[in-house]
Amino acid sequence: MRLISLFGLTAAEFAYLIQLWPVWNQLIAPAQALNFDPVPAPSLDLSELGRVALTGDFDAISLYTYQQQTESIYSSNGSQAIVTQRPNGDFATTVTSDGFIKSMCPFVMKDGTLAGVIVGGNFTSMGGQETHGVAMYDPNTQSITTLEGLTGSVNAVWCDQETNTVYVGGDFKGGHSTNAIAWVGTAGWSDLPFTGLNGPVKEIRGAPNGNVIFAGSFTGLGNRNTTTLVHKDQQIINLSSANITSGFSSTTNGFDDPHNIVCKVNGQDGAGNTWLLEDNTPGFWNANLSFGFQPTKLRLWNTHQDGRGTQTFRFTAFPNAIMNFTYIDPATGKNTTCDARCPLSNDTKVSYQDFRFVNTVGMSSFRIDISAWYGQGGGLNGIELFQDDIYAFAVADLNEPACATNNFPSNASTTGPWKQTPSYDSNSIYLSANLTGSSTGPDDVSVIFRPDIQQAGNYSVTIYTPGCKQDSTCDSRGIVNVTWSLASTPSPSQPQQTTIYQTNDFDKYDQLYFGPVDVNSDSFRPSVTLRPAANQKEGTSIVAQRVRFVLTNSTGGLNGLFEFDPNQATVDDDFSKSPIDKAAMSLDPGAMLNGLAILGGVIYAAGNVSAPGIKNIFTVNGSNPTALPGAGLNGEVATIFAFEDLLFVAGNFTDTANSSLRGMNNIVIFNSTSQAWQTVGAGVNGRVDTIVPLDLNITTDTPETVIAFSGVFDQINDFDSNPAIPVSGFAIWVPTQQNWQQNLVMQSMAIDGYLSASTNVTGSTPILSGSISSQDINAGDAISLTSDPLRINSLGVKIQPEQPSSSSKRKRVVSGVSGQNTTGAVTGLFYNSGNTNITVLGGHFTATASNGSTLNNLIFLNSTGTITGVASGLDTESVFLSLATQDSVLYAGGTITGKINNADVNGLILYDLVQANYAFPQPPPLEGDNVAVNAITTRPNSRQVYVGGSFDSAGSLPCPAVCVFENQQWSQPGSELGGSVSTFAWQGSSKLLAGGNLTVSGTATSLASYDAKKSKWSALDDAANDVPGPVTALTPANNDGSQFWIAGKNTNGSAFLMKYDGSSFTSIGDDFGDETTIRGLSMMQLSENHDNSDLVGRGMVLLLTGQLDLPNFGNASAALFNGTNFTPFLLSTSRNNPGSISQLFSEKVLSFKNSGGHMAVGLVVLIALACALGAIFLLVVAGVLIERYRRKNEGYIPAPTSYFDKTSNMGRIPPEHLFGRLQQQGAPQL
Predict the structure, then answer these.
(1) Predicted local confidence at residue 829, as pLDDT
(2) 646 DSSP β-pair partners
(3) Is the pLDDT of residue 4 over 60?
(4) How far is CA 648 from CA 509, 638, 662, 693, 730, in A?
(5) What's the CA gap between 793 and 798, in Å, rounded?
(6) 977: enclosing H helix or E strand
(7) Fewer CB atoms near the end CB (10 Å): N or C, the chain?
(8) What transmembrane ranges does the database entry give (predicted)?
(9) What distance in Å separates the CA atoms of residue 262 and residue 287, rounded to the nearest whole number?
């Protein structure tokens, strides 16, 4: 294939080619590998804990395995990015843009060198660089090369290696072309022989015969124009709002004001109507407008005041362009040209003269210099400027002036808090609205644009959006809905509304409509309405500037398809020679083709088209369009994609055109082998915009191709035994499973967002575009954790988090100090006794039971995988925050209300896990304004269950903050405690440590200790002064609990983390971001020691869970702290927001071991005492041995061992002989 360029390399173009140096440099630059740096897996040893699980509020979760990995969410503000896959299958964003990316192709040169990936879309910047509609991406260096020269948006790119050419199509201007152009090798932009097309191009494909096919909404070539403008120069440019000045004006009152000649069309002389110069002096008249325009005609009224008048003038468009004109000489009637000295007639019979601009030049300021005059000096009676383009501006003063002679001048009307904004770098001033407070919804804020349409015909309608960088609103820019009414009887197949994302960095325009527009009349007036999209956040800003209408030719010989032969230097006007062009001409006029595909050598085309027996999709067979089964589809097709022998079709349809095939909702497959339609499940419940293939691990570690659909839908429809699934405009079909990924039981990667395009690059993973987030697995709110190797796995429970209503009493949890999220799975435990093995999950969610029923807030998963819940009776708004067991009875606490066995419950329920039923009787309900049970613990070696939270009494028994349940009755542990408890930890068997927002004997503290033997509460020493806020998380740091970690929120809202070593607190510092909430703390054992630390032993690590903002990283749901550094551990997302993890729970309790760090003080004392006693014993033994040796050397002999009979010398002594003296007077003598 050979493309004949129309541009030779001349000296005049040398400067342009120099500008292409960055592109050449890109082509010859050495490649650099795209790196993903792995992170060593933490050496957690979970063997002592048995089964381990984590709960939280997330729907997708990952282990942190690569440095480039983040807990990112996908953008929903209209910006998209180039996306690649990491080695572990996750997706990584590499380069972002400020708009949609619609098409990509690998630009491979003839010699096999990859120049880069050509990217097209409606963006105005990419990778932080200004580039309009198209750019080149280097996948090795992740760099962007701008391809300057286009203004507008690109819909399609097609790379042809054989000719070093990229064909680009869309809705743009570039070079001398519109809507279609080529980028050739290192030479840059080159006009195609036909200089584009007269309507937007939607798709480009290479034909089987080597030609190039363009598809879209066009009727003719760019260099052909068969439309005659009945009303040329039909729009009057408003000079009334211009800043008008003059030089050397007359000093005569009534003739000195340059404004006199604006909006004066009667040519009448006189004060207030005429502007004059000083006598015999050249001068000028200057207008500086607040918008840009391209005038096509100048109309001037000469003055005859007192014999004066202008003889010659010149028109200068600033900065420095003297304009050329053609005009009809009133004296000769001949068409004449002029430039620097254009003449005006002095004939009083000539009311005005028209000067037509030879070149169309954009400007916002101009000057008329008068160089010669009649009589005593020059002057004018009137001036008007006209243009062909039709604009309606949001700022009313920019629309056609009040003096416009037509009946329906362009105008706009507004409602809402609009304010005028300077133009900055934009084409014109515009309106801005900040959506703050009430009455800022779609019904309250709007701009209605009404154009001056004087000729009916096919129009291209575009809306302009000023860039956000110039007015510093990029962080707040929102979304607008644009609707239109352009024909009195609109075609039902034509769309009447669209959504515009206004987050573009620089000025852009979007095409709204291409089709018939009716002329203004008393009964109908075309209009375009801009409103803010619904449900945007407080403080969102939107803008409104202008809408443009351009009349296009309607009889150019084409109808949405054009076949181009690159081997021909010129284009033949006889389009019937092309079977493709001829087939399109057989369709009804106004065909809009959105998609092209080549499958088995057959060309498939689809869009919004019709013909006898054909609806919206067809094949090109010879020179005729051929219908698919059922005559096609009953609605518009947005896109098609060929995969193996299948054609995936998506859009806005529900069935074939003339039959009924159930399940064809917006997505369907055409099997080219069987020539039959196949359903994709039962489709989705809304419009589908894109089809993108990608590789995922589904059933094995080998990736397979799946098909992603993105669009405006929120549900995958139910089919067969598969229920309906709520989604957010994104769904993945797995061809090998003939099912949606969301329906598959097997564990697979989680991906969500919007995919717009993909392309394959040799030697690289596929490159995608869109806005997506991905995590290792799809898992709803609960996962298991295993070590050796370290892995996370879904528990196999389908949980859907449920948001409490704004008026719900569940807000009590938020106002408390529990630190727990109130949606998702908040807490859990493992129960394993006898033949009963149950995993319990509690929180605020809905789940599906094994029998298909819906479960709320508390569920049980047994060893066989069966999922059950509790019987009815509890309010669905209940939230479970804490769990504990005693024997087979589950104690479940939280913000729980309802009735069990016709008895009220509040805060706490009892459930028998073996009997699978509520225990009887239930405890008397807790009482208080906002009852919440945040912590439950069983005293070691006891039947006592301690319940902590926010309440005042249990039944009729006062017991604020903590109450004990034993033998079916409540008791109060001490009387000193008040406030709200968040967490418990035992320090031995008789001391309980409580954290929260507490008081002890009326004194505020965040930590209090209860001595069960003395039944007395006491505040922990120094806690009131050293701990900066309520404690929400607590975990022991040694076996007896004398050392522990705490976390919570400072009074200023920031998170804190501290360790108590038995005598004092040590703070980790203000390392966390402002949005950090620490919800759980757990000490974990390691199989490999880390460096020694005073805070964490070498064989241990502290696990933090919650919603964390880590230093030098960002968002994470769990992190590990080794006493020195924080390392991300788990990353999660929830409904396209950062996820959170509440807590870790395990089957067994960790027993702390010496890991080479500091020992407990008591243990050190015991060891020292043992060493001292051992040393004394050795010294005594050594002394005895030495003494025996000495005596032996000195001649000592053993004493005799036989004794005489001592009893023979002893007699009985009468008692009186011993005690008789005691009765004598006086003291005994010594």
Answers:
(1) 97
(2) 643, 671
(3) no
(4) 31, 11, 17, 11, 16
(5) 13
(6) strand 977-986
(7) C
(8) 1159-1186
(9) 10
pLDDT mean across residues, the chain: 88
> What are the Cα distances from residue 731, in Å, to 269, 692, 720, 734?
72, 11, 18, 10
Average pLDDT for 667-694: 97
974-1006 confidence digits (pLDDT tens):
999 999 999 999 999 999 999 999 999 999 999
pLDDT at residue 223, rounded to an integer: 66
Give the separation between CA 998 and CA 1001, rounded to whole angstroms: 10
Q: What is the pLDDT of residue 1180?
A: 76
pLDDT (tens digit, 9 = 90+) per residue, 149-205? 999 999 999 999 999 999 999 999 999 999 999 999 888 999 999 999 999 999 999
Pairing of strands 212-216, 561-564: antiparallel
Give the whole-angstrom CA distance, residue 430 versus residue 530. 13
Task: Give how far the C-alpha of residue 540 lies from the chain's centroid of Cα atoms, to the nearest Å.
Answer: 16
Q: Which residues sit opposite 86 in a β-bridge?
A: none
Give the pLDDT of residue 1207. 42
N residues, the chain: 1230
Pairing of strands 750-759, 739-740: unpaired
475 exposure class (CB count in 10 Å sphere: 0-12, 13-18, 19+): exposed
- The answer to whether residues 226 and 553 touch, using CB atoms and an 8 Å cutoff, is yes
For 386, phi then psi, to 5°, come to -125, 160
Q: How many CB atoms lie within 10 A of CB 1111?
A: 12
* Six-digit token string for 1036: 């022991």
Residue 738 CA from chain centroid, whole number: 29
Quote the tokens at residue 573.
């006007």
Model pTM above 0.85: no
Token pair listed for 431 = 């309106």
Q: What is the pLDDT of residues 1079-1119, one digit of tens each?
A: 999 999 999 999 989 999 999 999 999 999 998 899 999 99
- Please state, in angstroms and rounded to a whole number, the distance separating the CA atoms of residues 21 and 146: 11
Each residue's pLDDT tens digit, 106-127: 999 999 999 999 999 999 999 9
- Closest C-alpha to 248, from 367, 333, 160: 367
Residues 295-324: pLDDT tens digits?
A: 999 999 999 999 999 999 999 998 778 999
Amino acid at 1108: L
Average pLDDT for residues 926-951, to the nearest whole number? Answer: 96
What's the token pair of residue 855?
A: 């479960």
Calculate Rg over the CA atoms of the chain. Answer: 42
Which of residues 368 and 662 earns the better pLDDT score?
368
DSSP 647-709: EEEEES-SSBSSS--TT-SSEEEEETTTTEEEESTT-BSSEEEEEEEEEE-SSSSS-EEEEEE
Q: How far is the C-alpha of 722 from the C-alpha of 733, rounded, in Å? A: 14
**Enclosing H/E stretch for 1191:** helix 1161-1193
Maximum distance among all Cα pairs of the chain, rounded to whole angstroms: 178
Instruction: Name residue, tokens 């995969």.
Output: 643
Distance of CA 906 to the CA centre of its chain: 40
Q: Report the alpha-carbon distance of residue 177 to residue 223 in Å, rounded.
A: 8
Give CA 1070 to chain center in angstroms. Answer: 28
Tokens (6 digits) for 189? 């932009």
Q: Is the Cβ–Cβ distance between 58 and 1132 less than 8 Å? A: yes
The pLDDT tens digits of the residues spanning 146-161 come to: 999 999 999 999 999 9
**Is the pLDDT reported for residue 93 higher than 50?**
yes
1068: left (phi over 0), alpha (psi -120 to 50) or beta: alpha
Q: How many CB atoms lie within 10 A of CB 668?
A: 25
pLDDT for the residue numbered 1177: 79
- Tokens at residue 1165, please? 């004392």
Angstrom CA distances, 676 to 477, 599, 660, 666, stand at: 46, 14, 13, 17
Please give the sequence-ordered ranges of beta strands (E in DSSP) within 713-764, or none if there are none: 715-716, 725-726, 730-734, 739-740, 750-759
